[in-house]
């Protein structure tokens, strides 16, 4: 019998916060645009998150609905919104 490991990003809010953190660390190409595949690649490869809607998609939708990220209608890039407010709560104390 195979036991499933807990998925830390199955919660849309946790996935959204991690996506915002990745977006903040990713250099924008023009006008604050960050290509979605750069965020997706890091989320999947480094964090072992799932592709598509189970984790990445739900996290992205949550971030857009809460005004953390702006998704272009083409779906090819995002813009980071409210950067200081979101990342301030994630800083570690000295």
What report would you give on this structure?
- With 94 residues, this protein is mostly helical.
- The chain has one domain: Winged helix-like DNA-binding domain superfamily/Winged helix DNA-binding domain (Arc Repressor Mutant, subunit A).
- Helices cover 46% and strands 11% of the residues.
- Strands 1-3-2 form a 3-stranded antiparallel beta sheet.
- A hairpin with a 5-residue loop joins strand 2 and strand 3.
- The longest helix is centred in the first third of the chain and has 14 residues.
- It is globular.
- The mean pLDDT is 81.
List keywords for this structure.
mainly alpha, three-stranded antiparallel sheet
Short structural description:
A three-stranded antiparallel beta sheet has the order 1-3-2. The protein is built from four helices and three strands; from the N terminus they run H-E-H-H-E-E-H.
Write the layout of secondary structure elements.
Layout: H1 12-25, E1 33-35, H2 36-45, H3 53-65, E2 69-71, E3 77-80, H4 83-88
Antiparallel strand pairs: 1-3, 2-3
Helix pairs in contact: 1-2, 1-3
């Amino acid at each position: 019998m195979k036991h499933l490991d807990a998925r830390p990003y199955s919660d849309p809010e946790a996935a959204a916060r991690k996506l915002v953190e990745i977006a903040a660390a990713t250099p924008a190409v023009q006008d604050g645009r960050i290509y979605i595949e750069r965020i997706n690649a890091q989320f999947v490869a480094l964090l072992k998150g799932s592709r598509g809607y189970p984790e990445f998609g739900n996290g992205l939708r949550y971030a857009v609905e809460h005004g953390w990220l702006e998704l272009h209608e083409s779906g090819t890039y995002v813009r980071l919104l409210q950067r200081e407010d979101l990342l301030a709560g994630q800083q570690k104390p000295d």
